[in-house]
Amino acid sequence: MDTQQITAPPCAQAAVSGVIHHNVRHTAGFTVIGNHLAQHRGLSLVAVGLAVHIQSLPAGAKVGIKRLAERFPESETRIAAALRELEAAGYLHRSRVRLADGRIVTRTVSCNQPGADAATATPPPPRPARATARPPSPVPPPPSQECASPSPAPQPTPACVPQPAAVLVPAPTARTAPPPPLPQPHALTPELQRAAAAILADLRRHAPQLSLSEADISTLAPGVAAWLERDAHPDTLRRALTTDLPVPLRHPAKLLRHRITTLLPPPLPGMRELEAARPHVIVIPLQNCDRCDRAFRSRHPGHCRECRTYLPTAA
């Protein structure tokens, strides 16, 4: 058989799979990031990006959660979680310190290489001289002290300098006053007790989240009885307890206790209090006319208006 003639062109070289780097050397405005951070397997992508951003900032820049949330589209919750990741990995240290003026601030220290110490940091070893084929030249005599210019010693790579021990200050706790006691009626009669318990048990018909247990109803009934004792209408009481409920409602009994106590109306004023509030009315007494004996109002006795028109005018 004849030899097969291959006339088809060779296949094109397959493209290289994976990323292809096109790197340009930076001359200004750059930050050196270690691969231990950029390729960290235990940090999330948000934490790695946040660490890169913090390391690129100048000293003294604000890196609070609210400031970072204004800068990036991530929420405050995600940023706070990323900061906790960086703290656990050693890239970030946050502590609360008290200043000289008494203010408490948060001090944030960013470490570009966790675990490194300035005391143990050593300068990089010198580069080995290139081997040449030339024979070794004789060592020249040392130059004089006047002409010799000492070469500067290589500076050690700056590492994370440990900050002075921060004085940890516990978060201030506000003193909470005890809640006011539940109002009590002057006389808790059985009829008043039953009416108050019925109103509390009926609340779940108007607001399903206000489903109370028998123990809660027995505890709150005296407060509702105090409302009824002050002539509060049941509808008024029901609106005060079921309007504008928070969502979600976690503790209905505590909410009702607060509203029953703080929204308690004052007692209705009596007739004696209302009489004192009325304006004083001046009443002019009745007089009998000396001429026609007709009654008229006047401060002084004499004649009525009609009789005064017929009386002769004094000269």
Describe this structure in words.
32% of the residues lie in helices and 6% in strands. The longest helix is centred in the last third of the chain and has 16 residues, at 214-229. The chain is built from eleven helices and four strands, in the order ααααββααααααββα. It is elongated. By secondary structure, it is mainly α. The strands form two sheets. Strands 1-2 form a two-stranded antiparallel ribbon. It has helices at 35-38, 45-56, 65-71, 76-89, 190-201, 203-206, 214-229, 234-242, 252-262, 271-277, 305-310, and strands at residues 92-98, 104-110, 286-288, 295-297. Among the domains are: 35-110, Orthogonal Bundle (Arc Repressor Mutant, subunit A), CATH 1.10.10; 190-262, no CATH class.
Question: How many beta-strand segments?
Answer: 4
Query: What fold name goes in the CATH topology slot of the domain at 35-110?
Result: Arc Repressor Mutant, subunit A
Query: If helices are DSSP runs of H or I spanning 4 or more residues, what is the number of helices?
Result: 11
Question: What gyration radius follows from the Cα positions, in whole Å?
Answer: 47 Å
Mean pLDDT score: 80
Strand order of the largest sheet: 1-2
Order of helices and strands: HHHHEEHHHHHHEEH
Looking at the overall shape, the CATH architecture of the domain at 35-110 is: Orthogonal Bundle
Helix content percent band: 25-40%
Give the overall form: elongated
Question: Are there runs of 5+ residues with pLDDT below 50, and where?
Answer: 118-122
CATH class category name of the domain at 35-110: Mainly Alpha
- The fraction of residues assigned to DSSP E strands is 5-15%
Q: Please describe the biggest sheet, giving its number of strands, its sense, and whether it closes into a barrel.
A: 2 strands, antiparallel
N-to-C CA distance: 172 Å
Q: What is the structural class?
A: mainly alpha
